[in-house]
Amino acid sequence: MDEFLSNLPVFREAIGQTFYIVAISVVVGGLLGLALGLVLYATRPGSLMADRAVFIAVNILVNVVRPIPFVIFLTAIQPLMLVAIGTTIGTNAVTFALSLAAAFAVSRIIEQNLLAVEPGVIEAARAAGARPISILLTVVVPEALGPVILGYTFIFVGVVDMSAQAGLFGGGGLGDFAVTYGSQRYNWPVVYITVATIIVIVQAGQFAGNYLARRALRR
Amino acid sequence: MSHVRLSHVTKTFSRGRGDEVVALDDVSIDVARGEVFGVIGQSGAGKSTLIRLINGLEAPTIGEVHVGDQEITALSERDRRAVRRDIGMIFQQFNLFRSRTVAGNVAYPLKVAGVDRAERDRRVARLLDFVGLLDRAHDHPERLSGGQKQRVGIARALATEPSLLLADEATSALDPRTTAEVLALLGRVNRELGVTIVLITHELDVIRAVADRVAVMDGGRIAETGTVYDVFANPTTTAAADFVRGALRDRPSAETLQRLRRSHRGRIVTVAVRDRTGFQTALATTFLAHHVAADIIFGGISELQERAVGSLTFELTGDAGEIDAALAALRTDGVDVTEEKG
To answer: Where is the ABC transporter domain (chain B) (predicted)?
Structure first.
């Protein structure tokens, strides 16, 4: 235990870094992904704003980016990182990459859940004379809100997972802490306390997500 | 005055690779302002496509659709949206917004139409009162029964005070009792609010309950059009005749006839019962005059638009020549008599 306590300041910093990376990635990636997902849903053939060219372009982009393992993605987008934030290492660089990776994952989750909205409800809105963009934002999204929140919760857990790889690029965080101060020094209490902390973060997120989704679904 | 007019409308759907399906084939209908016009047909007859042409949710391949003095088929999508705000629509599966309360559902078309909040609240309250669901305003739709859901659907469809209501199999998902309630409500919408209603259904009972006139659809075409009584009392197409037989069950089926024959050795004839005074007296005196004994062995008499319709099946016994003479006399008198052969 003493071995852990001596590292307490670093541990606190690591928690702060993880929260920073995860919070920004979930919010920025979540919003970007929402936009991409809406485009995928709405431009699909036969949908509200069907546009074959846009759909195909975005669909291919998502399919190309999404399967890349995060650790490779981090390396591959370094040129883009340099242009966007001026560096390829550190917490901000990792957050930038993670936000992008999350956005592509979120886009599919949004698309899938919107596709599950009953066509009849959309037809009712069309019959009322609503514009497609208004149907998308005031009918389709609210109707899918419960599953979408669960989807975001799923992404949150994935982002916590991916954030553990931040240490490889000087991003810090709990993953880095567990390796540097824990396993590399055969300091097992540090490893297990870090693991427990991550479990608590994930559980808290899952609990909050479930709660919000239940409220949206009123079940 | 014509409220809805479809002129020579054809609609084909492509299933890809040049595989075309003709949903509507040269269909023309004319719905008068203030009437309840029913379209009846088996599933796949093209009814759903037909009703969606009226509010422009579907566009015809060929032909014109007029609502009031506007030609829907000539409008841009933007202008069609404006027309849709004056056309209410209700659906088989109700299609209520689960993310909104009952009041929120009814308010939706008003929001779309840009009605301000105070006026929205007033109208929502009035509509929910009209459909008898004022006390459920703040519930979510999943807490309602099917009949209640459809009443919310009706309130929502009437929110913008449309002059035309489209009902797409509105009672097909309901049990018989709630069906009657919803149909009674549609009747009130027509009579009290003066709303023209176009309804599509596969059930003759729905047509009987509310429609003034009916079009029978068969394979994408209109088989017959006319008043409900004329079409179903004297069907000239098998499509119409099938619906009458299915709903009234007044004529014996082939199996029933076979069974009847085992216990009834005489000649079996079926007489159509129509709205005509002195009809049964004429039957009785004719059979009596020819010394023919007539036993009723099957049949049923019902009402269409408050006029009698049905048929009676008799077993006739007596001298063969006299029976022929009696049947001939009845036919001369304008009675529709069919001898059941076989």
So the answer is: 4-244
